[in-house]
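CORE FACILITY INTAKE
Project code: CF-77B
Contact: R.S. (postdoc)
Sample description: multi-component assembly, three entities in total
Requested service: structural model of the whole complex
Turnaround: standard
Below are the sequence entries exactly as provided by the requester. Do not edit them.
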Amino acid sequence: MNRTILDVDNLHKSFGRSAILNGVSFSVPEGEISAIIGPNGAGKTTLFNVITGLYAPDKGRISFNGRNIAGLQPYQIVPLGIAKAFQITSIFPRLTVWENILAAVITHRKKNLDCVTPLSKLAPIHERAQELLESVGLSDFAHYQSGTLAHGNQKRLDIALSLALSPKLLLLDEPTAGMSPEERRDTVTLIKNLWERLNITMLFIEHDMDIVFGISQKVRVLCYGVLIAEGSPDEISHNPKVIEVYLGEGD
Amino acid sequence: MMNLQFMLFILINGLSQGMVLFIIASGLSLVFGVLRVINFAHGSLYMIGAFLAFSLSSLFAGKTLFAFLMLMLLVPPAVAVLGLGLEVSLFRRIYRKEHLLQLLLTYSLVLILDGLTRIIWGGQIRNVPRPEILAGSLDLFGLFFPSYNLFLLIMGPLIAAGLWTLLYRSRAGNYIRAAVTYPEMLGALGVNVPGVMTATFMLGCFLAGLGGVFMSALANIDLSIGMERIIECFAVVVIGGLGSVGGALLGSLIIGVGVAFIQIYFSRMALVFPYVIMALVLIIRPWGLFGKPER
Amino acid sequence: MPSALESYPSTHRSWLIAGTVMAVLTILPFVLGQLGRTGEYWLWVATEMVIMALFSLSLNLILGFGGMVSFGHAAFFGVGAYTVALLMKKGGVGFVPAMAAAPLVSALAAGVIGWFCVRRVGLYFSILTLAFGQLIFMITLQLYGYTGGDDGIHGIPRPVLLTPLSYYLVCLALVAGSYLLMRFLTKSPFGLTIRMTRENPERAKFLGINVKGYQLVNFIIAGGFAGLAGGLFTELNRFAQTEFLHWSKSAEPIFASLVGGMYSLIGPAIGSTVLIFLKIIIQQIHQGLVEIWGIILGVILLGVVLFMPEGIVGVYEKIRARRRRPQ
């Protein structure tokens, strides 16, 4: 049994009078690739945002590698080993692809305050950047302005930026949102490959059930801010509570 | 110098300055709410309104009520028409551009409009004579209330009420508020969204012009009032929160009264008051006293 | 496939251009020295151009690289100016220590003001910079006991060693040195980090960057360079005036950066030079036109924002990129 890398305990979060998270609790073992699903408005993105520090929870604990991170700022949480790839692709549009990744690697290696060394002279950083570029398949696009890339490639870059942090836990918020079926397949293959090669714990939010059942080891179902079911894809697809939630929801 | 009459005078003065500021700031707030552009040049438009009032008033030679009414009727629409020209030729082009460029564009307008004002009207201090009926003071309860200031104290809430009615009780107001919340949807429903935006912008300019008219008879006007007022407007929308009529009113009165009183005791630092308040609010509670915190 | 090949403006070209320009600029005063009175005037103009180029370069660290519009940059220019004025005229301090103090004092001012301003983003940041700029202006105006208020401080001593020609060379050296420093800064990891915070502050946060911290450091550096420019300017003119702190003075580096090209390092220097040439030409054409200097500035800024926001350098780069694209 792998040790627990992420432990979420009785998480509550409200915005004004809307209670979004109402006592979410679960544990993620190291190395797992799992999905969080649930109807719209169930609180999935909010859950990710609370874990990564954008919001502080009203109540509850979040433990990462044994350390309580609830209430910390994103820039404090990220160096601990959690990275998030965005739902709406979030890159640095006017920088080239290469500069994007360079920037992420520099940040990970804490070299941001270096005011004197020219970027072109940072060999070890270049190596790592090249490695990342290849791992997401964007080597051909290195010197293109990243904002001009096709959507699917921007998504890859987004993932590469997160990977640059050598995270132990990677959160992916709807990685295939808005993609064509072909792009979707490519992205899923990429995610699966990365998981196999890099041995990162992955947690993703998805609506596409083929993907969810295709690559996740475990599925957790969130509804109205509460975890209603947790299990293998097979167990979940036969769970009466889950079926009821999705009854009538076309997929 | 603590006698009641004196304090009252300061208070009334401050409140009426606040009322004028409210009229102007509400225009700015409205434009931002619908068009999502902060129009730096709003202060310049107000200044143009004030100077237009001055020019027009010299035409009517004689401190008659008629002249003043003419000013109120003619100047704000004139400024609104100027606004129309600006919106159609310039603002339309920048709605989709990044905020940095929007800011710079309206900033360039400040340079142009202030420069034009200087050329047309010169650098001297001007003012507009108050209509005779409002030139004196009213004697109530043994205290004197300057009539013109009282007039403004009535006009302010009247206009606030009028704005509120327009926004919340009229068809046009529905369109405006809908354009704030669902711009794309409104277009899909066949509403002429550019038309709504233009109309809103013109309304904002109208209010700026009206504020200019009122200010021209309240105090001396010169070429610095544009920049002074826009910064005060920023302070108002910062304090009251963008998009809140009530907040704008409260913010304006706070600034008006604050400046008036500080002027007596620390005259040199009075002008600094709006900046200090604004900086404080922006730092402590940036969504204003009435707005909602946004992430 | 990406729709367009657009690489970030390369600065190798800038090296070449800058090198040539430096050579010309260094020889210039000796040429002008032969021209008598006219030569003296143009030497003064050239010195002003060099100094104002530094002022614009400093603002662009915040504007072009940081992506933040600061309307109050003249405050730091003015702080540097008055520091030199007060130290040299009233404090009897020498040229070198006074000139060294200017950037330090304005960097300090930038630290204090910047700390407040970076707490907010976008529009609110800009409003705060405008407010603080005006605040400093008014405080300077009011403290006429120290600053001479409206009159300013006049009669700042000029060290015997500094003839107009040698002063020009001193300014040239300092500005060129500052430019080199900025070049290192912007091409370093720090520079890339600043550009990251411009492009996508949210994402930068999620990569682990303390965005506000970096923005503040950038603001302070920019303020320091502006202070140096202010100090040099004051010594050139031998007076310091409250106009140096007015909001319209903050407009000039903004204009220069836009016109010259805010996404390059050399752009603002080019824009600033264009600006000064323009002023001179207008003065020559018709004295009355000086009145409408603000309008002219505004119109050009308007045109640039609407039609070529990438500025002269940006247009130049686009033309080069088009020529290089395979047919």
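Facility notes:
- Chain A touches chain C at residues 52, 73-75, 78-79, 83-84, 86, 90-96, 99, 102-104, 106-108, 111-119, 122, 141, 143-145, 148-150, 153, 161, 164-165 (CB under 8 Å).
- Chain A has a mean pLDDT of 87.
Invoice: internal transfer
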